[in-house]
Amino acid sequence: MLDDNPVTDLTQDQCWDFLGQHEFGRLAFHLAGEVHITPVNYVVDGQRLIFRTAEGNKLLGVTMNNDVAFEADEFTDTEATSVVLRGSAETLEGDEADAVDHLPLRPWVATTKLVVVAITVSEMSGRRFALHKPWAHMRSQ
Amino acid sequence: MLDDNPVTDLTQDQCWDFLGQHEFGRLAFHLAGEVHITPVNYVVDGQRLIFRTAEGNKLLGVTMNNDVAFEADEFTDTEATSVVLRGSAETLEGDEADAVDHLPLRPWVATTKLVVVAITVSEMSGRRFALHKPWAHMRSQ
C-alpha cells in the first residue's frame, strides 16, 4: 500500500514562497491554559506574518501568552501542500502598526479589525503530499 | 465599508453537517507547553472526530495533554465557512480501534498511521463569511 515517496519536504525558501502566495491560514494560540484555533487573513512582511484582529479571545490569548502556531495549506485532487510554523506574536503599535497600511493585507471580511499583530517565526516546515483518493473518481460531481 | 451582516453564525447541527461533509482539517494541540498545529484527515463518528496518526509529536502531544482544538473550512470567491471546535483527545484501543475500520476514514496520503485518536467535542462554533475580495477580479486567472 505504501508509495515510495508520498511526502516531500519543502525547503525554508519554498515555505516562505508558499506563505507569500497565500493569504488565509489558521492561528493556534493559548488562552487560559487551553489551545484555541481560528482562521485568519495574513500577509508576509519580511520574515514575519502580519494580521489584524479586533478585541477578543484571539488578541487576549496572544497578549497573555505569545507562543503561537500557524498553518496554511492548499490541495487539489492529486496533491496537498501544508506549511506549519511556530513563533511568537506581538501587537504592533504606533509607526510599526501604521506601516502595515502599506502592506497588501486584505481582510476577506469587512468587519472592523483594529489591532495589528505580527508573528515572528521560530520554526517552520512544509510538506507536499501526493494524494491517493480513489474515491474522488467515484463522486457524482 | 461595513456590510450589514458579513458574518453568519452556524447552528450546532450545521456545524456537524459541515464537518460530516469534509475530511480534512487542522488539529491544534499542546506539546511540552507549546502550541502546535498539523493537518489531519478525519471522519465524524457520532459526536466525535476520528483520525489516525503514527507515533510522533501529534500523538505524544495529545497523550500528554488531551486538550485540543480543531478547524475545518471551505471557501469560494464569495463565501468562506469555518468550523472551529475544542475538545479532548483520547487514543482508542482494542475493539474501539477496530470499529474505526468500518468508518469511511480515508487518509489522503499512503503512509502508515496505526494509532486511532478520537476527539470528543466540548464546544463548537461555525461561521459563514460573505467575502469582499475586489482584487480577485483583477487577477490574470
Automatic annotation (TrEMBL), chains A, B:
Superkingdom of origin: Bacteria
Gene3D superfamilies reported for this sequence: Electron Transport, Fmn-binding Protein, Chain A
Protein's UniProt name: Pyridoxamine 5'-phosphate oxidase family protein
